[in-house]
Amino acid sequence: MESELLSRLLQRGVLQPHPLGGVKIEAHSYCAEGANGQTNPRFRVLGELTTGAFFFTSALDINARHAKRCVEQFATVFTPAAKDIEAAQA
To answer: Which of 9, 6, 78 is nearest to 42 (CA)?
Structure first.
């Protein structure tokens, strides 16, 4: 990888390279997979770094669709339940 940030994340095991390119992710949630094989629900990956999982990632419409799905997945995990929102507002 040409990026200093990506190189360090790979060295530290935060990310794991995908054998077909990019980094390993869980394709449904876009969560990054670390060297230990665990996914990190707070670390999502989109675009060219998902080449190994999705093969074709350079088209804008595909990236937009992936971004929408990623945000939807992220929102389901990190959106507090309605009762929690109401309690916080009280």
So the answer is: 78
